[in-house]
């Protein structure tokens, strides 16, 4: 679902129609619609929880999710779906946000779970996971990028608006990959809890970043990054 020419078997070319048939097949594979991707970081959660099920949203985190849900609803867009990480904090954030977007289907996926996408450059002293974690998490997060971040399907006629509720590391990595920036720079960005990052993918494959980690809709005393 990327470059149309890559979707065609060039060996299968009619000798009689030649270039005309190729142009027709290319046109059939070209995207016509724009995809709007809204990447939402989960709200503040209980850092003392030992297991994922214990890392539930704090009272402030629930307030943040309410504010994010209200903000998304106020945009007046027809959202197609909410895809969220299967981790507790992302699932709870999604449940609160979805109250403001009735009728929008929710889909849970393990691909968007938090992790270590790639070793950051420059390195940081406060965060050094085991090397094996980069291999395990990195492959999964890269798979999430390839699976979810692409131009619209050729059959899609109207622009789409999709919400992805996940985690800071995942969002920062996706932004770098989508903009074709060195992915090793993902840790140079910082995202607030409940923030909104808006990517636009045009039919020709060009990607634009409309907003990164926006929390301007939250009162200053409700903004956190933990």
Automatic annotation (TrEMBL):
SMART domains according to UniProt:
PGAM (SM00855)
Task: Give GO BP annotations, semicolon-separated.
Answer: positive regulation of mitochondrial fission; programmed cell death
EC number from the UniProt entry: 3.1.3.16
- Tell me which GO cellular component terms the UniProt record holds: mitochondrial outer membrane
The compartments listed are: Mitochondrion outer membrane
Q: What is its main location?
A: mitochondrion
**What's in the keyword line of the UniProt record?**
Hydrolase, Membrane, Mitochondrion, Mitochondrion outer membrane, Necrosis
Keyword Cell membrane in annotation: no
Q: Which reaction does it catalyse?
A: O-phospho-L-threonyl-[protein] + H2O = L-threonyl-[protein] + phosphate; O-phospho-L-seryl-[protein] + H2O = L-seryl-[protein] + phosphate
Q: Name one GO molecular function term.
A: protein serine/threonine phosphatase activity
InterPro entries in the cross-refs: His_Pase_superF_clade-1, His_PPase_superfam, Mito_Ser/Thr_phosphatase
A Pfam family the protein falls into:
His_Phos_1
Family of this protein: Belongs to the phosphoglycerate mutase family. BPG-dependent PGAM subfamily.
Q: Which PANTHER family does the protein's record reference?
A: PHOSPHOGLYCERATE MUTASE-RELATED (PTHR20935), SERINE_THREONINE-PROTEIN PHOSPHATASE PGAM5, MITOCHONDRIAL (PTHR20935:SF0)
What's the protein name? Answer: Serine/threonine-protein phosphatase PGAM5, mitochondrial
Query: Which organism's genome codes for this protein?
Result: Chauna torquata
Question: What gene name does this entry carry?
Answer: Pgam5
């Amino acid at each position: 679902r990327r470059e149309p020419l890559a979707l065609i078997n060039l060996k299968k070319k009619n000798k009689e129609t030649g270039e005309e048939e190729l142009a027709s097949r290319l046109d059939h594979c070209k995207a016509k619609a724009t995809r709007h991707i809204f990447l939402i970081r989960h709200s503040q959660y209980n850092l003392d929880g030992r297991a994922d099920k214990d890392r539930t949203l704090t009272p402030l985190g629930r307030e943040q999710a309410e504010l994010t849900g209200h903000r998304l609803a106020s945009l007046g867009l027809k959202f197609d779906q909410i895809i969220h990480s299967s981790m507790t904090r992302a699932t709870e954030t999604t449940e609160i946000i979805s109250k403001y977007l009735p009728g929008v289907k929710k889909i849970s996926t393990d691909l968007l779970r938090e992790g270590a996408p790639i070793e950051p450059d420059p390195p940081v002293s406060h965060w050094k996971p085991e090397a094996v974690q980069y291999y395990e998490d990195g492959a999964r997060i890269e798979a999430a990028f390839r699976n979810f971040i692409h131009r619209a399907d050729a059959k899609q006629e109207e622009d789409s608006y999709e919400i992805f509720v996940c985690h800071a590391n995942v969002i920062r990595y996706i932004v770098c990959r989508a903009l074709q920036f060195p992915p090793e720079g993902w840790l140079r960005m910082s995202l607030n809890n409940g923030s909104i990052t808006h990517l636009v993918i045009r039919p020709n494959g060009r990607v634009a970043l409309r907003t990164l980690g926006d929390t301007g809709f939250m009162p200053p005393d409700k903004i956190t990054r933990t």
